[in-house]
Design a protein that fits this description.
Layout lengths: L4 H27 L5 H4 L13 E2 L2 E2 L11 H4 L11 H6 L16 H29 L25 E4 L5 E4 L7 H20 L2 H14 L2
Family: Belongs to the ISY1 family.
Organism: Bucorvus abyssinicus
Keywords: Nucleus
Amino acid sequence: AGLGEFRIRDLNDEINKLLREKGHWEFRIKELGGPDYARIGPKMLDHEGKEVPGNRGYKYFGAAKDLPGVRELFEKEPLPPPRKTRAELMKSIDAEYYGYRDEDDGILEPLEQEHEKKVLAEAVEKWKKEREARLARGEEEEEEEENIYAVNDDESDEEGGKEKEGEEGQPRFIAHVPVPSQQEIEQALVRRKKMELLQKYASETLMAQSEEAKTLLGL
């Protein structure tokens, strides 16, 4: 290793050159009918008894295995980390994962309030500019509000009544059955109350006399 990177590379190149020449002679011996030394010959081992590492037929001996760029060729890639199962992934999912605790630190809420005020101020400023522009064009300041109670003439209610516009613009209903007024309803309630009191406190003779008097008076 003390020879230096360039000297080590030159020596390793020289060894590989001799190995290629040796391979050519082994191939020529096989062509002449001799033994196949490439197959039956001893393997090249390093001082630790391991086969000499190589890349595309080029071998690295001794300190050449530790040269920059060479060590990475023979380093085994680390195994990928084991994938977590669905059950293991679900263990780390809680309310904070879905963002339900974002306001617990007291930082997000003031920022949201500040942004809300800014957006409202921009909206008000935009409305004022549009209003001034309409006034400058001579348009009406207030737009006519839509009458949400207006009903079309061709629409009818559930009871079969038809809605029409009155003289003052208010909706007017035409009913197909007689509808008593408020005064008639009050009179009917009073008469009913009187009858209940008479039935409770008056005798049968008095009730008969009262009915007879009503008949004579034409009531």
